[in-house]
Design brief:
Layout: E1 4-13, E2 16-19, H1 20-28, H2 32-39, E3 43-46, H3 53-68, E4 75-81, H4 92-103, E5 112-116, H5 122-135, E6 143-152, E7 165-175, E8 180-190, E9 196-197, E10 205-206, H6 208-230, H7 248-263, H8 267-276, H9 288-303, H10 306-315, H11 321-326, H12 333-347, E11 356-363, E12 367-375, H13 379-384, H14 388-394, E13 396-397, H15 400-409, E14 427-433, E15 439-444
Parallel strand pairs: 2-13, 4-5, 4-6
Antiparallel strand pairs: 1-7, 1-8, 2-3, 6-7, 8-12, 9-10, 11-12, 14-15
Helix pairs in contact: 1-2, 3-4, 6-7
The structure holds 3-hydroxy-3-methylglutaryl-coenzyme A.
């Protein structure tokens, strides 16, 4: 079977930074440690006034295409995953293609373009669409551009405001990929839920505490569903475990449950039994509540063990480095987590070729997806090209009043103009509205 997967990846962050412990927490009269220790976040990336989901997506694609020497004719699909779209008919992918046609010779007229929606899991679903299109033999030797781009803003004062972020991840999906090969096996956990939604409104309606429980429940189902086709997962089977990361604290919880599940009936559980006992089994309890309480207590003991700590620090923690500095990018978040882990692996000279990753995506509403990936020989070169750390370093550090103005500028219900805080250079910028209400874009040298 031909190998299909992610050939290349590029990340584009919004150019502004909101320092959460330094600027946001004091302005809200909150303890900075709620952000750094509780949520695990240090900063949010936000878009400058000339940036939006199109500019960030197009800028990531331009870097990717130039680096890989791709022309528009090499691209047979452009799929955009977003939950921040501003047009209910014309897909964001057409705007992005229009931008790219300003700077590349040729055009994307024979490429199939679309937009995917299922909250944050849509980025992974777009990769699936590309994978299936290639596997079906309909790609005519071309690859697919998948762009996960979002401006994740919450209403001012909403508890989700702490987890905002903005940025884009562009990926090229192809045969014989340089970065990772995708497993044909996948697992899903999907139920009709009302935990986080945007019923024709820009900012989400969120039941934050419930959304955490729904994330964990759907993720457990996706793991079990994956195991029904891919075989039992064991913690030693994968080198990194990138999760959808709305905030690192969420992943801290999800990882402990994943570890507990994957060590059940293994020698790891046996080896830990003297220290913390064996995992409770449901048949030993009179009621489900008693069983769940015992499981909760076991998990508390488990995460305190050195065995768990060593696994978490090696396999999960490196995937959170970028997220801590950028916040939630919705559709791009799990792909930022993968890149973060691989960047850590490169910096620490890990030998990952041929090794596996387990990737856990999630979207509210709600659906989780789990699959595995095999790291390809070209991974080091691919990851070495990422310049996301320099981009993060260059972000403009917002004062709290400036943050308020930027939030208003991107609020579709307010008509606020604010002077840009950064100077665009060699990138696409938003350039006003056209005669039919379309957004217009220009490339700035
Ligand atoms: P909150 O009420 O602001 O925060 O809401 P909190 O009081 O729950 O505190 C957060 C954590 O900080 C807690 O840790 C506190 O104990 C701790 P936990 O107990 O949970 O481990 N804390 C402190 N720690 C140290 N020192 C202190 C301190 N103070 C507090 N001084 C909430 C938090 C996540 C609910 C909120 O930010 C929210 O509503 N976020 C948006 C929803 C969300 O991100 N949900 C995640 C799952 S759903 C998902 O991932 C999908 C999503 O990406 C959307 C999509 O799919 O499209 C969101």
């Amino acid at each position: 079977m031909t190998s299909v997967g992610i050939d290349a990846i590029e990340i584009w962050t919004g150019k502004l930074k909101l320092d959460l412990p330094g600027t946001f927490a004091p302005a809200k009269g909150e303890d900075p440690e709620k952000y750094t220790k509780g949520l695990g976040l240090y900063a949010s990336s936000l878009p400058d006034s000339y940036e939006d989901i199109v500019t960030m997506g197009a800028n990531a694609c331009k870097r990717l295409m130039e680096r890989k020497g791709l022309t528009p004719e090499d691209v047979g699909r452009i799929d955009v995953a977003t939950e921040s779209a501003f047009d209910n008919s014309k897909p964001v992918s057409t705007y992005i293609a229009g931008c790219l046609e300003q700077v590349f010779d040729g055009d994307f007229r024979y490429a199939n373009k679309g937009e995917r929606k299922f909250a944050c899991v849509a980025g992974t679903q777009s990769i699936d669409d590309a994978y299936n299109w290639i596997r079906a033999g309909r790609n005519r030797d071309r690859g697919a551009l998948v762009v996960a781009t979002d401006t994740a803003l919450y209403e001012r004062g909403d508890s989700g405001e702490a987890t905002q972020g903005a940025g884009a991840v562009a990926m090229y999906i192809s045969e014989d990929p340089d970065l990772v090969e995708l497993s044909p096996e996948q697992g899903y956990g999907s139920m009709d839920e009302t935990d986080f939604l945007k019923p024709n409104q820009q900012f989400p309606s969120v039941d934050g505490k419930r959304s955490i429980q729904v994330y964990l429940a759907r993720m457990r189902e996706a793991v079990e569903d994956y195991e029904s086709v891919g075989g039992d997962l064991h913690p030693d089977d994968f080198e990194l475990l990138p999760f959808h990361t709305p905030f690192p604290g969420m992943v801290r919880r999800a990882a402990s449950l994943a570890y507990r599940h994957t060590i059940r009936d293994t020698s790891i559980e046996e080896d830990l039994a003297d220290e913390i006992g064996r995992q409770p089994r449901p048949e030993a309890f009179d009621s489900e509540d008693e069983y769940l309480d015992a499981m909760g207590e076991y998990t508390e003991r488990l995460v305190e063990t050195d065995t768990y700590g060593e696994w978490y620090d090696r396999v999960v923690e490196p995937t959170l480095d970028l997220s801590r500095e950028v916040g939630n990018w919705y559709t791009g978040s799990v792909h930022v987590a993968r890149a973060s882990g691989l960047q850590h692996a490169l910096e620490n000279d890990w030998d990952l070729t041929g090794k596996r990753l387990a990737v856990a995506s999630y979207g509210s509403g709600a659906q989780a997806e789990v699959h595995t990936e095999v790291v390809q020989p070209g991974w080091k070169e691919e990851i070495a090209h990422l310049n996301v750390l320099e981009q993060l370093e260059r972000r403009y550090d917002l004062a709290f009043e400036e943050y308020g103005k930027i939030h208003d500028t991107h609020n579709h219900d307010t008509d606020t103009d604010v002077e840009p805080m950064t100077t665009p250079e060699g990138e696409f910028v938003f350039d006003g509205w056209g005669r039919m209400g379309e957004r217009k874009y220009t490339y700035v040298e």
